[in-house]
Amino acid sequence: MTETPANGKEALRIADLHAWYGESHVLHGMDLSISRGEVVALLGRNGAGRTTTLKSVLGLVGRRTGTIRVNGIETVQMPTHRIAHLGIGYCPEERGIYASLSAEENLLLPPKVQEGGMAVDEIYQMFPNLKDRRKSQGTRLSGGEQQMLAMARILRTGAHLLLLDEITEGLAPVIVQMLGRVVRKLKERGFTVVLVEQNFRFAATVADRHYLIEHGRIVDMIPNAELEAKMDKVREYLGV
Ligand SMILES: Nc1ncnc2c1ncn2[C@@H]1O[C@H](COP(=O)(O)OP(=O)(O)OP(=O)(O)O)[C@@H](O)[C@H]1O
Ligand SMILES: [Mg+2]
Question: Which atom of ligand 1 is nearest to 166's Cα?
Answer without folding.
Answer: 25
